[in-house]
Design brief:
With 438 residues, the chain is mainly α. The chain has a domain of 301 residues. The protein has 23 helices and no strands. Helix 8 packs antiparallel against helix 21, helix 8 packs across helix 22 and helix 10 packs antiparallel against helix 13. The two termini are 12 Å apart. The C terminus is likely disordered.
Length: 438
Amino acid sequence: MSFKRFLLRLPIMHYRLEIPELLQAILLIAVGLSAVPLLEETLGMTKEVALTVVAVAEILGVLHVTFGDPVVPGWVASALSLILVFLSGYAAGPDSIHAIIALQILVAFLFIILGVTGLAHRLMKIIPVSLKSGILLGAAFAAIDKVVKPGGYFEHYPVSIGAGGLVTFIVLFSMRFKVQKQKSRLLAQIGKYGMLPGLVVAMIVGPIMGEISFPDIEWGFIPLKFGELFKGYSVFSIGFPSMDFFISALPMAFAVYIIAFGEIITAEAVLKEAEAERPGEEIRYNSNGSNIISGVRNLLLALFAPFVPLAGPLWAAVSVSIGERYKEGKEAMQSIFSGMGTFKLFAAIFVLFLPVTSLCEPVLPIALAVTLLVQGIACSYIAIELVANDKTAAGIAGTTGAIIVTSGINWGLGAGLALCLLLEMNPFRLNEKSSDNR
């Protein structure tokens, strides 16, 4: 096998708990909880069952640090908008449940097979850059459309999304903010918390403007409805999807993996940069191991708790902010595992507490909308960078993205591949921007 042995990492025994990451986990769990309305809308789950699924997904995320993968995992967030377009072709209920199960099983096997064989990097090198860019543009267009279209989230929460989104964009993307935080300790601290400042602003502005209610804090633990989840959503109760569902989901699964692989490349870059700031400490990251763990998470969820956003290898915003704090030295953060592990461990714990989930509940649609907008911007600039200085590739990418949104992933990928073959001299040339296999 081409991947190194997994290394066990347990809290307290192998890494200390970090207070800043623990505090971040309390409110940033709102992003994870924003999957609740998605599960209700697309799969017809009750709120209690959806909360149970989110709790299972968060707990499975702890597997990464536990088995030596030094990242904060999350959803395959950049693919979420495409997944919603895919599911829009199915009525909420048995059909949409079987569709997401089929998709998640296929994605799981792609992760596992490519991780075990070590072929992920090689496969990604031969996929045309224009097609990759087109998939990302399709994801960007679909994400923004989900928020701003008539009847979308923005129509219901314009001020809250506007205020929360504006703050989030400034913290994550503003060049002026990046310059100013070099001069200001306060701005530097705010910048380390990624989406959190925007969510706090939305939680304050929303109730004041009457767009959302003030939180009704409840005490105790969330109601875990494992019986209802198993009876209504597990393949061992409702049966495996038919072959038609798998065939329909196959192009979507490849598109999801292409996007997820970009997150793996991002993880490599973030950890390499962090390691350079503390040269005496080695950060071991193995992309094949990350693939395998992500695949196991997706497979377990598909079988027992189908999860619309899927299980991805990286929550980029949080991992980057933790990486920045790691650079400050051992006194600030003992190890990369102590930061990443503390955040994910306590996110998995806090999601079980009603005071936390009830505090976040009113802002969940806004958190989801802001997440989609952030993914829209991120997917757009990555897609454009991929085809920079190549007019033909840029044209193919734009056309592919538009067809994905208007006609679906199958037509989009088909048209994109046809255009690659017709218009590019050598569409399957090695992509020099891809990382080498490790």
